[in-house]
Amino acid sequence: MSLTHRRLALAACLGLIAPCAQATPALLAIGTLNGSADLSGLSGNLENGLPASILGGTGSGITWAGGNRFLAVPDRGPNATPYNTAVDDTVSYTSRFHSISMSLTPNGGPGLPFNLTPTLLGTTLLWNAGALAYGSGAAVGLRSGAPAQNTAGRFYFSGRSDNFDAAQNSGNPANGRFDPESIRVSNNGTRVFVSDEYGPYVYQFNTATGERVRSYTLPGNLYVATPNPKGSVETASNTSGRTDNKGMEGLAITPDGKTLVGIMQASLIQDSSAAGGKLLRIVSIDVASGATHEYAYKLTAGSGVSDIVALNHHEFLVDERDGKGLGDGSNASVKQVFKIDLAGATDVTGMDGATAATHAVGKSLFLDIVGVLNGVNGIPRSQIPAKLEGLTFGEDVDVGGTLTHTLWVSNDNDFLPAVAGPNQFYVFGFTDADLAGSLFAPQLVPEPASSGLLAVGLLGLLGVARRRTA
User: pTM, whole model, 2 decimals?
Assistant: First the structure.
């Protein structure tokens, strides 16, 4: 398997259209993943009547997995369909991730420079070899929260909010509830790391089987002491820990694969008054030892952070957004990507919110997504997804003879395509010049043997193939 970042050739490079210049991050392609069912093989319906194999929400988290293959994770399931407020309408949706082929090909005609065709390749369910805690359902008027496909030695994680041990805090790794929000892959491709909002948790899974192989212990100030199946009650009943449904929304992995960097979506309960409620915690995790450090981050204008991705070993891109746009019935306003640097940042572990806020990392605007989609490409603000949540880098492309890096952005449509639009993926291109002096040193992972055949052919014709190393 190759560790190359192969470059796809834009039609301009073949002389089909005039070469194009790129001064700032630009939109290169938009792709849609269609279909109503995933490849989980699950049958039957969830508590709200929707099928257990429903396809949706794939943009909660996305990661490049080599060549044209990406992994995407939906969150806790289709809880936007009302049926039981005692569990916030969550259902026994089995946690999973999807493998998707992203065919990015030059567009020789009008429109965006590339055509993007996503194809679902597979669905992997997430489980644990040891028994997990599930709700009996009696207190909330439901059947047991244990997934129907559980067997001896295989217990599946589920999105239903009452799947926890009430005698433990929210960080109990034996809880069956799981709300995935971001996904990253190990450098050798054999493991995936997933962050969640219920714990918050950061788990390591076997990529091929979906079995959990490790749970990371996060700083205790992130956990709530008294879990509850209803989020608003849970937040009101605790004086510290993550806000309900706003746990570890983003997760990055450094290019060497040795450090995970997670970021909370919103302020911790105890930090809610610090910096006007805009103080967030970043947590770094040593993959081998599990050692953690905390850093402070301040929101600019959005209501929360959705993801974080590593530019290099110490600089990161952070996605801030509001909840406005397609799916909310309003016009999108804030969908911005900021660049931050943790080199020399102060470890705020043990600091109260007010003190931590004085040590917040510096940040600079890297990409105004609404500005590019609406102002440059004319996409109505009402048609820009409210939940643009996933960030990842993909293969480099060649735009008019210029090596161009790609930043992929995905949306969470809450399993409601009629309301929030389909599962969509946006590809933005940027050059080294756009990084204002920062070094782009992306993670390299093994490339699937069958991917990138078109790229190989074009590179052979152009004679521009070269190996990029982190």
Answer: 0.92
